[in-house]
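I had to read the description of the data format several times before I understood it. For illustration, here is how one protein appears when written out as sequence plus structure tokens:
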Amino acid sequence: MSQGLPAAGSVLQRSVAAPGNQPQPQSPEDDDRKVRRREKNRVAAQRSRKKQTQKADKLHEEYECLEQENTMLRREIGKLTEELKHLTEALKEHEKMCPLLLCPMNFVPVPPRPDPVAGCLPR
């Protein structure tokens, strides 16, 4: 035994004994069993923490991918909205001079169309 260091069993006995109770003598088999159980528990705890960290990392990566996809989709919505406005304006300009629409024989009263842009924009 090294000088100044308590025996391995005495540390375990002191930590296990409740205040006011008499510490029970421990056999070397009991000490070995406790050491093995603690080591097994330590390894299991490490494994659990590693698994939890991996799960958090995976969720973070998924979050970042979804954020990128969301940004791309918002840009696409903006481009499509602008294209819709442009095409709607072009249609209005065309209707002003379309010979088919200007000919009295082709005139059929049509109720006014709702604004197509308003129905497509996100709310």
About this structure: The mean pLDDT is 81.
